[in-house]
Amino acid sequence: MSDQRPTPDLTTGWSQFTHRLGEWSPLGRAEQASTRTWILAGLGIVMLLAVTQQFAKLETKDLTSSGTWVIALAWSVPILMAGLGGIFSERTGIVNIGLEGMLVLGTWFGAFGTLVYGPWWGMVIAAIAGAFGGALLALATVTFNVDHIVAGVAINIMAPGITRFLASIHFPDRGGSITQSPTMTGVSSFSLPFLAGGEIFGWESPDMLGRIESWDWFFVSDLAGVTRGFVWQMSWLTLVAIIIVPASTYLLWKTAFGLRLRSCGENPYAADSLGVNVYKYKYYGVIIGGALAGFGGGFLSVQLTGIYREGQTLGKGFIGLATMIFGNWRPVGTALGALLFGFTETLRLRDPNAAHGLLLLIVIGLALLIGRALLQRRGQVAAWLGATAAVILIWYLSTDSVPNQLPRIAPNIAVLVVMVFATQRLRMPAADGQPYRKGEGG
Fold first, then answer.
1. At the topology level of CATH, where does 60-189+233-349 sit?
2. In angstroms, what CA-CA distances link 237 with 73, 197, 295, 413?
3. pLDDT tens across 45-90, in order?
4. How far apart are CA 240 and CA 231, in angstroms?
5. What are the sequence ranges of the domains in the chain?
6. Is the pTM of this model over 0.85?
7. In a 3-state reduction of DSSP, which class is residue 3?
């Protein structure tokens, strides 16, 4: 009898390991493939920014500096929360135009809660206020079958009136006024040890990404700067917002609750025939969406600006809806869309020369789209894109600055481009915006 053991099949063993890892992972194979695609897209975007920065000869390196991206990440949070709120609502079939009003409720109640109880309780109160706005929208659209757009507009009109009335009662006695609150302090920030120089038990760890960023190597330092912006001087509330993104993905696509909720937005009559309480899950989706929007509004007043001001949302609820479409009604894509808006807003505030570099960035992006159109044999589209790129290139070469409004509208243009060139990939929930009455159709 031979005592030799069989040689292990390493290929089979690795396949079994990866299969088990895929089963353990909260993301399915399709989501894992999508995640890899987003990672590659992120690396491509950093390369695009690095090339633009090189050709535009920006001495401040603001397109890829960690200082730019840490601010951009913070400014993207209110838009991200509004976009996620729209996802939860529309996945149940309710079009939530009232996100702007829910953001407004979050700004006031977050500020009031912070002044009375502190920033953490202020954010909880902001989320509750947004959930209350979502409950009102659900009451109108689900219970009374009011048109979704009309109900959402009513929320947007009602919210500023409520907050102005409450501000006139509470803020003047606290050192504020009818249009703004006293100043307040948000939550603290942190840096990730070793990567961005955070502290461990009072000991200051090395700042590896900051050191690589200072080397000024093409792409390598740019990638380090962008990455450092996500782990350096980040507020704890920003971390909470980041965690909500994968948590939302898991809740919507990996739980029975998420399956039932999404079924209400795809085919509510089929869901009802399988025993799903469609009315209840529509309430759940809209209220969760309102709570997320309220959190975003609270973040805007408590953490970003440190003060509540009337009208400070500036349409971020509607921008959140645009990022939801940009992200194809999925959390990760919505997060990237929100980051795009936050990035351009930061450039507008930090460096006008960097904002001028956006023109060159748009030209390079259009050149990539032209190449794609030519590969797809869409000559007419390529011609139109080429003409547009030529006009913008002439604008870039003949000027040294751009109007301050360009960075503000650049993300809107990006959303329109995505909607024009990716319409086949964009798919809203099948029953989104359609009225539902139990037992009336199928």
1. ABC transporter involved in vitamin B12 uptake, BtuC (1.10.3470)
2. 11, 20, 10, 29
3. 889 888 888 877 766 678 888 888 999 999 999 999 999 999 999 9
4. 13
5. 60-189+233-349, 351-427
6. yes
7. coil
